[in-house]
């Protein structure tokens, strides 16, 4: 899974649990991701839901039936072990989440081609082990950025934050979401020019500059399949 090993919920178990099945009293108030997995498995077992779940299966297509206007039903084709089967459902819920398609706008960093260190999206981060003794730049200070930077600070030589301070959303209030993203990143990330802020003597050197740049950015909002 695309989560870092130490990730813990930032909402309490009382606010996170299903109303019909509270977390066990022995569980901590803020839960490690392994506890969330335990809870989901306990919930499925308690309500005997596993018999309705098809594991290791791929949804090939989801289409409205010809009589959809009268009954609202869908045709769903699922592939398991190379074999496809068709099902009819009264309703469809796509619950894959919207943090699965990482967005890394490298074109916004003119100096990135000269940067000899490692850079990547937080989507790839799992644990701090391979970053011991590194100088690290974390771009963004959302929940993930703060978590990862804090964790890296225990092993890295230095951790620096880059945070967006200047952005006026009024100019894009009426724009589409795509246009909003383009304007947002062109305005915000235009302030970070690696080639400008770090001279060639600094880029990629462990002694003076940033030896590893960890870029924490956003995700594209996209469904993993098309509803027809």
TrEMBL record:
Its EC number is 1.-.-.-. Its cofactor is FAD. The keyword Flavoprotein applies. InterPro entries: FAD/NAD-bd_sf, Flavin_mOase, Flavin_mOase-like, FMO-like. It comes from Monodelphis domestica. It is an enzyme of class 1 (oxidoreductase). Belongs to the FMO family. SUPFAM superfamilies: FAD/NAD(P)-binding domain. One of its GO terms (molecular function) is NADP binding. This is Flavin-containing monooxygenase. Keywords: FAD, Flavoprotein, Monooxygenase, NADP, Oxidoreductase.
